[in-house]
Design goal:
About 30% of the residues lie in helices and about 15% in strands. The protein is α/β, with parallel strands linked by helices and about 280 residues long.
């Protein structure tokens, strides 16, 4: 931040706040009249938005795209773990029966192909998969098929792996309902590294238990943390990681670069990276 022309100042003299924790009360009290910009350390903003902290007279930037590399690596790790039955293999105490499949030649559909989705596409390029990328605008992000929201159901029906990377908004809540889960192939896997609220959890448990989809690899859940004894812990076709697609150790260097870049832009009165649209909710 200092290298970019910023300086640490008492709050009463500050024009900007770099907020990297979840203390809503502190941030609400820190928004003095002189504050013109707040940089959040999280890519998702739903907690601050729902709490009414995000005043429209302040420029808000989230860490959108900052953690794309570590999260994209986790997506591919989950896909490989699912395709090669690694959870069972790692716990095995006898040789068992051979099983597993290649990622090569399979189809992956990415719902919400922003920064994370683009990184996933880059990593998967060596696997020669067929790729479908869904964005709000249907813009070209380098996938074989670049589609808009009206193609969601087609994406679900075509994909061997469905990756959820969309933001949590009222529009995306429970977007994977029972009806939409029923569109997925019986051997398809759902990979969720976005927010648990994007999926109807009860419907997902039902689809997994009945075998109407192949499995789910979840780094997020609703509720979160996932309670002890929840069915998702015990279903054999589920992989759960406890919201660790990005950790502080992995993400801090990327966040530091974003803070430095935005500090320089703020000082030069240039457009900020990761600017939040309060109307859209991300």
């Amino acid at each position: 931040m200092i290298r970019a022309g910023g300086a640490v100042a008492p709050l009463r003299e500050a024009e900007a706040i770099i907020c990297t924790d979840d203390d809503l009360d502190w941030l609400r009290g820190a928004l003095l009249p002189g504050i013109r910009w707040v940089q959040l350390g999280s890519a998702g903003i739903e907690m601050w938005l729902e709490a009414g902290v995000m005043r429209p007279d302040v420029a808000w930037t989230a860490a959108k795209g900052v953690y794309a590399r570590p999260i994209a690596e986790h997506v591919v790790a989950l896909m490989l773990a699912a395709s090669r039955n690694l959870p069972d293999r790692i716990r095995a105490r006898n040789w068992g029966d051979p099983s597993g499949r290649l990622l090569y030649g399979r189809t992956v559909g990415i719902v919400g192909a922003g920064g994370i989705g683009e990184e996933v596409l880059a990593i998967l390029s060596s696997f020669e998969m067929c790729t479908i990328a869904l964005t709000r605008s249907g813009r070209d992000v380098g996938a074989d098929h670049n589609v808009g929201p009206d193609a969601l159901e087609w994406l679900l029906a075509e994909s061997d792996y469905v990756v959820l990377a969309a933001p949590a908004t009222p529009e995306t809540r429970a977007m994977l309902s029972a009806d939409r889960l029923a569109l997925m192939r019986t051997d398809a896997w759902l990979i969720n590294i976005a927010r648990g609220s994007l999926v109807d959890t009860d419907a997902l448990v039902g689809a997994l238990a009945s075998g109407s989809i192949g499995g789910a690899a979840l780094d997020v859940a609703e509720p979160e943390p996932l309670p002890d004894g929840h069915p998702l812990w015990h279903l054999p076709n589920v992989i759960v990681t406890p919201h660790v697609a990005n950790t502080m150790e992995m993400g801090l260097p990327f966040l530091a670069r974003r803070v430095e870049e935005n500090t320089g832009r703020f000082a030069r009165r240039e457009p900020l990276l990761g600017l939040v649209d309060l109307g859209l909710g991300y």
